[in-house]
Amino acid sequence: xxxxxxxxxxLLSLAALPAYAQDFIxxxxxxxTLIIQGTPQQNADWFNVWAPGGGGSANxxxxxxxxxxxxxxxxxxxxxxxxxxxxxxxPPAYNADFTQMxxxxxxxxxxxxxxxxxxxxxxxxxxTQIDHPGMSWxxxxxxxxxxxxxxxxxxxxxxxKKPNSRFHTVFTVRWNAAWIMPKHVFEKAGDPxxxxxxxxxxxxxxxxxxxxxxxNWTIWKLRDDWQRTSIGMAAKEPPQVKYVVYRAAxxxxxxxIEQRNHNLxxxxxxxxxxxxxxxxxxxxxxxxxxxxxxxHPDPTLPSVLLNTKxxxxxxxxxxxxxxxxxxxxxxALGSYRGAxxxxxxxxxxxxxxxxxxxxxxQDWLTNFELDTGSRxxxxxxxxxSAQIATMVRGQWGDQIPTDPKQLQRTFGFGWWKQDVxxxxxxxxxxxxxxxxxxxxxxxxxxxxxxxxxxxDAIPTLARAxxxxxxxWSQNGIATKVDVAGPxxxxxxxxxxxxxxxxxxxxxxxGHPDLSFFLDSYHSEFIKPLGQIQPPxxxxxxxxxxxxxxxxxxxxxxxxxxxVTKVGQDFLKLAVEEMPMIPLMAYNKFAPFDTTYWTNYPxxxxxxxxxxxxxxxxxxxxxxxxxxxxxxxN
Length: 633
Known about the structure:
Elements: H1 7-13, E1 33-37, H2 63-66, E2 72-74, E3 83-85, E4 93-94, E5 100-104, H3 119-131, H4 138-144, E6 145-152, E7 155-160, E8 172-173, H5 183-186, E9 206-211, E10 217-222, H6 230-234, E11 243-247, H7 252-260, H8 272-281, E12 285-286, E13 296-298, E14 303-306, H9 316-324, H10 328-336, H11 353-358, H12 362-367, E15 370-371, E16 376-377, E17 380-381, H13 384-396, H14 404-411, E18 415-416, H15 420-429, E19 433-435, E20 438-440, E21 448-453, H16 459-474, E22 478-483, H17 488-494, E23 499-502, H18 515-518, H19 544-555, H20 563-577, E24 580-582, E25 586-588, E26 592-593, E27 597-598, H21 617-621, E28 625-626
Parallel strand pairs: 1-11, 2-8, 21-22, 21-23
Antiparallel strand pairs: 2-3, 4-5, 5-7, 6-7, 9-10, 10-11, 12-26, 13-25, 14-23, 14-24, 15-16, 17-18, 19-20, 27-28
Helix pairs in contact: 3-4, 9-15, 10-13, 10-16, 13-14, 19-20
InterPro entries: SBP_5, SBP_5_dom
Family: Belongs to the bacterial solute-binding protein 5 family.
Keywords: Signal
């Protein structure tokens, strides 16, 4: 097999490295420090995870990962121990009609400033966010909670406005959740939407040590009283990582160099060729999978998000036309170098989803018919994934499986055929006309698209955007790639985009229930363009049938066998309406450097999430072991 040569790339990328690369941990023992790839902060002074803060640092600098806490966590990797009680001592207790939820809290947990955590903090969190629209969890609390009472320091009772068997998921971490606010701090702070919360008090095992005012790094230190936290109470031995650094690490090539120089232990994502070269050349690198594609398959669904509140994307015929102009084989090769797990359904093909949804729905997908206005077609091709496997087998040889079931788990089950003629018929059905090689909208103006991507932070998705933009342009829809960079999240949440390569669907991973994203898709959460859309319905898809499915899911227990039936109803509706175009699982090329730390999670030992932005990474941080052969410094 052939790998790109990185010597020249390394020389060219030195200029991309931050100037502080050797100075950001001055005075801190390297062999006690875990260094994680973070993201440059627009507002480094902002530590209020409960308010937007104009692009603040709450989700990507270690704050939510290392200092916040809530009732429960679910390990997205699944397994028998996936459910973890955190601030709560047991799972939620509902009454018979799911209109009341009782939570029992742990005793003996303290904030880092010495104040004891109690049910007063929980009640304050809910009431404050209801009273202040715009706070991070104001919408789900306002919609669901009629009142909250705390009869004693370790008991909280939620009275709901209507039955909702999924209300506990608001406080259940898969990536994040409703974090508990320190009442004794915020009640003296004035407007909670304007409060910087700097420095933050911590409810988990680490506290803020220092940060770069320019937003390039943040350093966290293990609490002296780490035992007085939920993670401390669950720990079998003291954490060996004393310091955690979240730091910007430049572009994808720069990340390779920094990890080779042992200045970056955990990479969030990088280009596939960088990963392939690391696995070939480095003796100190570990990965989630030992062989191709090496990547970690997040239970996240990169898609073409279509802003359904902006014409013509409010028309499902237009949305389907855009899907049928895509050659997914070119997208898989151009973005992931073939290491893509395709997804035709609106749920990532990871965790339990292949068995719960993809395999059982293959007959339905194969027989699904689409009316183009001129004829009915069956657009699904169950063999596309096998075609991609054949394309890369020449490079990877025996690492590419031949067993059909293994191929499906690695490359996906199938996708939509590229059918430009069918796309043409759908656009004509929607009132579009073609002038030369340019499609015109019904009002006679050119149909152009601004396709938003984040950029170097997620190189695979940026590349996917480039390929799709080329395909749409070649077929008469002039498409320009719009690199949003650090403004990506804000623009998506306010609806300041037409189409975007990102995700609005994330699942629990090892559990078939789709409520992690599905509950937020209810029309009661839809906001006008310009206002912040509560996670996660970024395409602002609104449909009465969707509301009925969500209501049904809320009425059955979390572990009911009917969960997959309701899930399939949703997936069928999403195929018919195509509010977003699912592409593939989010395979993350995220190598670990083992020079200083070992016992990283892997497919063989999936004890924790490993993504730096995931709040679940706290279990990895406290589970790492110091490498006895590490340099002594």
